[in-house]
Write a structure and sequence with these properties.
heterodimer, A: 585 residues, mainly alpha, Cytochrome Bc1 Complex, Chain D, domain 2, 5 domains, two-stranded antiparallel ribbon, 29 helices, 4 strands, 44% helix, elongated, B: 432 residues, Cytochrome Bc1 Complex, Chain C, two-stranded antiparallel sheet, 18 helices, 60% helix
């Protein structure tokens, strides 16, 4: 025990000695001594030399009171030569600060421009501030994000990256999903009004470059940005620190509560020159000039530019009409409930111009061979090998069909598949390609797909008995019974909200159907729904409820009445329900 | 007899007289001298003159009580030094913490030592409680000491909790928000308790000054007094608990080294002493209590007990120093009431509570903890069987030990879940 005690005591004493040595001979004293020495060498004046010889290191601090809460900046303890012009070529920390006219250190301090932790006097704590300090030193190219806190004029010439970032914020459609008070309104992504204050620059940059790095379920599209574009956006977002929110006009706060703020003028989004110059153009030309600037190309494909997130717009002229496009522009979720596209805050005349432009474009030339037609028209969603894994398939809800599943493809009638290809599938991103190809080429393409992709054997469905209309009249009692069956059997995959996001849904491909997809449910016959429930859907995980769960036709009728009740379709069969959407099918 | 030899002679003898007035007794070299150390020194007088060797075995207590007290001393010392720079004002507190971490000489080390010693003390007192339970050392006559110990445990939690708020960073602010909100779930008086704790409806300047006063003045004073009573009770209860076999004479006992300076004839004639009287008069006078002559398996506290205590203290200091030099105490962004982090977690010793609260506010936050504390307090009054005292995991105490192990495991698992497996919105996440 005694030897152990002696050993430990010696170690403790040694540690204390080490600590005392480390703490009492700080680096900043060395830096200052070095400065005194070098400054004395560079001086010819003996009086100055004498003063420097007698000068002892001490902590230099500035207390900054002009900018909100008082700050204490002790950076000049090490950076003691910031205002000594003779040290322009010296190594840090003794290098002179580049001259910024009008910004005296005694008034501004250092951290108001550079961030960092001003109270510390050792390098690690001052520059990074420890692991949890939210405002580490800014990289030199991002300092302008702090300049614009006072220099708020958007045309101020000395913050080029922030200005470029602001343009990109609109051009790349960020403004449609993210709110920045006074600048944009979007309710899909997090609000970015004070993201520059809350987040480090490294975090912002990472989120822009790879949205799913830290949040695997983020739906933010990953855009193809060049490095200087990423830097510009980072600088712009880092400058959003909500420090001048009070100076934004009152109207912007009021109208920020509305879905479609009218205060977001076109000049705001595309710049004043373009906004004025398009006023005199005819609609189609106007649309041509505006489309690249309002953010469409950050997701869609048009001619040579491709955002790789959303469908190809080259064929819109054949597929859609103006009414459809206007409805879609105003609220994409009305047409495709699972759409990722946000409602754009643009006035209707802009939408009209964009529609006219898209509808006026000549169709690209179509190749002759069905294989090439598939590669041009279909592979973007359905994948090169037809597995439903095309470039944009991850962004579509419902996902594109996996054409290799023979169990599905070979058990559906050719007429049904042909109808999907010809008229599209309402409620999904499947467009009416028949209008692009024409009937003969559409038929050839269907045959090509059926002959090429589905692999594996199938079991032909035997004689099926499905009622053509609902055997149960639509009534609250039936809906209640259907709800009970749904909560008993169906919600595990289709979700408690019947939106296809049940707890089992993550593991199933293809995903369970969103049963609140009203456009889709309106477009399919009762018989088809009944058959899917009773006999299941081969090639998917939908079981045959009529057998596995012993549901009678009456019970299935109740279930379908319940599903209709979720979609406002209860007053009649789909064929009798009035169409709200234009029939661009 | 006058000690005054005249001014010059007094001046000449000054150093010797000063030394003698401070250190009246020389370092002991006889049994008499060793006995006197416990009477002649203020800091040592709470110790017994002789200590039973069983109490000195490392594998019996692991020195946990002494380690806990050493941590308390370290916390007091570092805490006082930190008080020279800390200001409990919402505008200044965080800035002062930055000064301590980055500017003040030794600031970062003192701060780290204080923080890790605080966490260590909570963990060590819990282990100390477990040791006392598993050795059955709460049984009569030691019930009151156990109760005092539980009260000290709760005071330790409270001291750590009040100190947690003082950095006034996001971690502190929201941990205290969570902790006081759990307290508010108590029926009837919950909101009142919360108001008394915070001095306001929200966590603000009132809460900060209140917690500061509790943390630096009130709680250390109460803890010191109760620790004094806790030590005094050890003496009154006959020293640390030990098994009956520890009192057997040399031939049957396991401690042959205990008996020193035995005289043959006297040893053969002496009776085995099962009950020691620690009366002052009995120690140094009388033929049958000549120290070292009775085979009672005790040794002199000087040097054995003091060496052991000093060793525990030095080891604690060493470990706290090393941990403080390697790991930095966290300091997050200044407290911002408008930006709660998601999730906001209580300090680790309350995370088990927070996990339970996520299932049921009343039962998890108030009901079950109250039952735990009541159970702990009542243990020595419900289990009064005298079997199995003084040994670890005695077979006579299988039920009690199993229940306590379960109690510890449940709390440990809840704390682990709360720490590692809970993410935003208190959803289950995997830490890897």
């Amino acid at each position: 025990m005694r030897t152990a005690l002696a050993t430990i005591s010696i170690i403790v004493l040694a540690l204390h000695g080490f600590i005392y040595y480390e703490q009492l001979s700080a680096r900043w004293q060395e830096h200052q001594s070095q400065y005194f020495q070098q400054a004395a060498e560079r001086s010819d004046n003996p009086a100055v030399r004498a003063t420097l010889a007698h000068r002892k290191p001490q902590i230099e601090q500035v207390i900054v009171r002009s900018f909100g809460n008082p700050r204490v900046d002790r950076c000049m303890t090490c950076h003691i030569a910031v205002d000594d012009p003779r040290f322009v070529k010296a190594d840090q920390p003794l290098r002179t600060h580049p001259p910024i006219p009008g910004h005296k250190f005694e008034t501004f301090g250092c951290t108001i421009c550079h961030d960092g932790q001003g109270r510390a006097v050792d390098a690690e704590h001052a520059h990074t501030g420890g692991e949890d300090w939210p405002w580490p030193l800014l990289a030199p190219e991002l300092i302008e994000a702090n300049c614009v806190q006072c220099h708020t004029d958007p045309d101020w010439p000395h913050a080029p990256r922030v200005a470029a970032g602001r343009r990109l914020f609109f051009q790349r459609a960020c403004y449609t999903c993210h709110t920045i008070a006074g600048l944009s309104y979007g309710s899909i992504g997090p609000e970015l009004t004070e993201v520059g204050h809350k987040r480090r620059a490294s975090y912002i940059r990472e989120k822009i470059e790879n949205p799913r790095a830290t949040n695997p379920t983020s739906t933010m599209p990953r855009q193809e940005l060049k490095p200087d574009e990423v830097l510009a956006l980072t600088a712009f977002l880092k400058s959003q620190q909500a420090s001048n929110v009070a100076r934004a006009p009152l109207a912007s706060f009021v109208s920020a509560q509305q879905q479609r703020p009218e205060w977001l003028p076109l000049a705001h989004i595309v710049g004043p020159e373009l906004a004025t110059s398009v006023e005199t153009m005819p609609p189609a030309a106007r649309g041509a000039a505006l489309l690249p600037k309002v953010g469409c190309l950050s997701c869609h494909r048009l001619d040579a530019s491709d955002g790789r997130v959303a469908p190809d717009l080259d064929f819109t002229a054949a597929q859609r009409d103006r009414d459809w496009l206007m409805v879609h522009f105003n609220d994409p979720k009305k047409v495709v409930p699972g759409s990722l596209m946000p409602p754009y805050p643009l006035p209707d005349d802009v939408f009209d111009s964009l529609s006219q432009y898209l509808l006026s474009r000549p169709l690209p030339a179509l190749p002759e061979a069905p294989a090439d037609q598939y590669a041009l028209l279909c592979a973007r969603c359905h994948g090169d090998k037809g597995k439903g894994d095309g470039t944009i398939s991850g962004y579509l809800d419902p996902r594109p069909r996996d054409l290799t599943k023979a169990a599905f493809m070979k058990t559906k009638s050719r007429e049904r598949l042909l109808a999907s290809l010809t008229s599209g599938v309402p409620g999904t991103s499947m467009a009416p390609w028949g209008r692009v190809l024409g009937p003969e080429r559409t038929a050839a393409l269907i045959d090509y797909v059926l002959g090429t992709f589905p692999q594996g054997s199938t079991r032909e469905p035997k004689g099926r008995k499905v009622p053509a209309v609902n055997p149960v009249v639509y009534a609250p009692a039936s809906v209640a019974r259907g709800e009970a069956i749904f909560l008993n059997r169906c919600w595990g995959c289709h979700g408690k909200k019947a939106d296809g996001h049940g707890p089992n849904a993550e593991d199933i491909v293809p995903r369970p159907r969103n049963l609140r997809n009203t456009p889709f449910l309106r477009s399919v016959s009762y018989a088809r729904l009944h058959e899917s429930i009773k006999y299941g859907v081969q090639g998917t995980a939908m079981p045959a409820a009529g057998f596995d769960f012993a549901l009678s036709d009456q019970q299935i009728g109740d279930l379908i009445n319940f599903i209709y009740s979720l979609n406002g379709l209860g007053t009649g069969t789909p064929a009798q329900t009035a169409q709200i959407l234009p029939t661009a099918r | 007899m006058s000690r005054d030899q005249g001014l010059l002679a007094n001046l000449r003898d000054l150093p010797k007289n000063v030394w003698r007035s401070l250190f009246r007794n020389p370092l002991p070299s006889s049994d008499l001298g060793r006995s006197q150390t416990s009477f002649s020194n203020f800091f040592l007088h709470i110790h017994p003159v002789k200590t039973h060797v069983h109490s000195l075995r490392p594998a019996y207590t692991f020195g946990l009580g002494v380690i806990a007290f050493s941590l308390f001393i370290i916390l007091t010392a570092t805490g006082i030094l930190l008080m020279f720079y800390y200001v409990p004002s919402v505008e200044q507190a965080h800035d002062r913490m930055l000064d301590l971490s980055g500017t003040v000489a030794f600031g970062v080390l003192l701060r780290n030592m204080h923080r890790w010693a605080a966490h260590g003390m909570v963990a060590i007192v819990l282990l100390h409680m477990a040791r006392v339970f598993f050795t059955g050392s709460y049984k009569p006559p030691r019930e009151l000491n156990w109760v005092i110990g539980i009260v000290l445990l709760l005071l330790t939690f409270f001291a750590s909790f009040t100190g947690y708020l003082l950095p006034w960073d996001q971690l502190a602010y929201w941990a205290i928000t969570v902790g006081t909100s759990i307290a508010a779930y108590a029926p009837g008086v919950g909101e009142l308790i919360r108001f008394v704790l915070l001095g306001d409806r929200i966590v603000g300047q009132e809460a900060l000054i209140r917690f500061y006063v509790l943390h630096v003045a009130v709680l250390p004073a109460i803890i010191t007094i109760l620790v004094g009573v806790h030590f005094w009770r050890i003496r009154k209860d006959g020293g640390l608990s030990r098994p009956a076999s520890a009192d057997l004479p040399e031939a049957q006992s396991e401690f042959p080294e205990a008996v020193e300076g035995k005289l043959e004839g006297l040893a053969a004639r002496s009776k085995i002493q099962k009950k020691k009287s620690f009366g002052v008069l009995g120690m140094v006078r009388g033929p049958f209590n000549k120290v070292g002559n009775t085979p009672d398996n005790t040794v002199y506290s000087w040097p054995h007990l003091f060496t052991a205590e000093l060793f525990c203290f030095a080891l604690t200091v060493l470990i706290v120093l090393i941990v403080a030099m390697v790991f930095n105490a966290p300091l997050e962004a200044p407290a911002d009431p408008t930006h709660p982090p998601n999730p906001s977690k209580a300090p680790w010793y309350f995370l088990g509570l927070q996990e339970m609260v996520s299932y049921s506010a009343f039962w998890g936050g108030v009901g079950i903890p109250t039952l735990f504390v009541l159970g702990l307090l009542l243990v020595p009054y419900l289990d009064r069987r005298n079997k199995g005292v003084g040994e670890w995991f005695s077979r006579h105490r299988l039920l009690a030990n199993t229940l306590f192990v379960l109690f510890l495991l449940v709390n440990l698992v809840l704390i682990i879940i709360g720490t590692f497996f809970r993410g935003p919105n208190w959803s289950l996440v995997t830490p890897w």
